[in-house]
Structure formats: structure tokens, C-alpha cells
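Quick sanity check, Aminoglycoside phosphotransferase family protein:
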Amino acid sequence: MIDNIIRVLEARYACRMERLTGGYTNLTYRMAGAEPPLVAKIANLSNDDTLNEVQVMRLVQGSCDTPAVHEVSETDGMRIIIMDCMQGGNAQSILDAGDWTRAERIYCSMGQLLAAQIHSRPYQPQGTEIRLSNRSALSQVIRTLEFVPAPLGRQSLQMLSAAEAGELPWVLTHGDYGVHNLLCESDGHLHVLDWEWAEWGSPLNDVAWVCWFTKHHYPGQSGMLNTAFIRGYLSVTPLSFTPQQMKAASLYRVWNILHRLRIAPKEVQREWVRRLEWTLGEDFAELHGTS
């Protein structure tokens, strides 16, 4: 099925399909030789995330550095999205290479971009089909996931409940914002990829997820990087939050991932239960916002 789609695309666009990794989801290909440079994302029709992604990318086109969608088609039970191929390398590779001076600059730019180009768009209840935050219904998810130990669920519910009163006004959120979904050009210019998990929700969900990702994967440099990220964000727009709200927003993202892992392999489920436990025990006190 996929091979047939690839042959059709190669013939139609006179290109060679090259599989992409790093910042792109599975079944994403560079259409080498196509003019202008293009990328094809191929997903099952049952994957509603791709429909959500298309809606968001069309909404932000012209106001955010993200690929333009050229065509959306369906064939053989699959959805094909043709979009711009952006320049640059995956920003996470800069952290993995240990270039912390450049990484700090990128984190400051990440904060500025998130505030200016994404969170600057307030919630629009009509006219779009973009996913809504399910935070209010998360308690049901927490109570019904059998592979997560009940004590971790109860502790999560307590922390989420305690932070609910301070939820911020909804804006457009990326849903998986971070260096792993950014392309960085040599001059530091950033492009945002992979909007599948985007939704209308609290801006703190994105802010917390960047800090969570960095604390978990780069603990030795997370203080420096997250400080640069928050400083960049606050240079564009004010954002007031407490460490408790930061932890609650991180838990929101972790539980949404756990919910998606209901039929995942046991080892994947165990790893994310471990990450849940880590999040519950982690101290977010060094992160703070200002109004």
C-alpha cells in the first residue's frame, strides 16, 4: 500500500521519496527533486491527529514559521499531506552535540517564538475544528488506565485539582513544543514542525512541556536552558505561574501520552509510568513566572 503511494507521488512530482527522521513523525518523506522543495506525510485515515494538524497549519500560515500545506488527498485508506520542506537541521542535535552556548541562544529564541507566533492567538470557539484541551475530563482518563498504579493516579488527581483554580485563558498551543520539533538554520532561525497534538488550551501546557523535556533529558543543563527559554518568553508577553501549576501542566501532558498508550507494548507503558512517577517527584521550584 505505502509502496504504491510512493510510486504514484514519485511519478506525479518527478521526485525521489526519501524517508525523514528527527522532528518528523513516522511515514514522512522528503520529495527530493521536487520544485519547490516538498515533504509528504502519509498517515492512516483513522488518524485524526493529521486532520487536526492540517487545520492548525492553515490557521497559522503567514504568522508562524511553519510549513505551508499544498495538498491533502486520500487514497488506499491513507491520507497524504504535501507541505513545504523547510531548511535547517533538527534543533535537538545541537543539544546532543553539547554545544550549550548555541543551545542557550536557541532556547531564548524558542521562548520568543512560542509567545509571539503561537500563544499570541487567543481561543476562537467558532470557525475552526482544532482540538480542545481535555483537562476537565482528565480525571476519567486517570481513573480508567489499568496499567498505571492507582497511587500514582490519586496523587496526580490531587495535584491537578489543586492547580485548576489558576488555569490561564486559553490560546493556541502546539502540544509537543520543543527542540525535537524545531528545525534550526545556521543563522539561528527556527521553523516549527509537527502540529498533530495542537489544541486550544492553557499556554502553560507548552511552557511546562519544554521545561519537563529539558529537565528529563538534559538534567545537567536544564537550569540554564529553561531559564533562557522562560526569559525569552517573558520578553514578549507576561505569564504568571507557580511551581505547582508548572508540575500540573506537565502531568496533563504526561497523562495524555499515557492515554494514547492504552494498546502500546508493555515496555513502552512501563517507561511512561516511570516518567509519570518521576514527574510527581520532581521539584519545579526553580521555575517561576512573573505577571
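Posting the structure with no commentary besides this: The chain has a mean pLDDT of 93.
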